[in-house]
Amino acid sequence: MLGTLLQIAFLLFSLAILMNFWRLIKGPDLPDRILALDTIYINSLALLLLLGLYQNTQTYFEAALLIAMFGFVGTIAAGKFLLRGDLIE
């Protein structure tokens, strides 16, 4: 039962990533594309966590933690770029 639910969730998160890639390509402006990238990394984080639950291993949880840290830094850098136009002051 849990395996079936994890497979359904895996399918739904994969579909969400595909829709986010569509927004990344067709985004009318830069903030929409940055938001699409942000949701792509959040959904990939969820996929890694689901895969870790499905395979009953902790390795994927550590990889998800690394993706979360890099995604946070990337979001901060993108926001700073949108506000000021440069990353380094």
From TrEMBL:
Domain of life: Bacteria
Main location, first listed in the record: membrane
The protein's name: K+/H+ antiporter subunit F
UniProt xrefs under PANTHER family: NA(+)/H(+) ANTIPORTER SUBUNIT F1, NA(+)_H(+) ANTIPORTER SUBUNIT F
Record keywords: Antiport, Cell membrane, Ion transport, Membrane, Transmembrane, Transmembrane helix, Transport
Residues annotated as transmembrane: 6-22, 34-54, 60-83
Annotated compartments: Cell membrane
Species of the source: Idiomarina piscisalsi
NCBIfam families: PRK06161.1 (NF004812)
Family affiliation: Belongs to the CPA3 antiporters (TC 2.A.63) subunit F family.
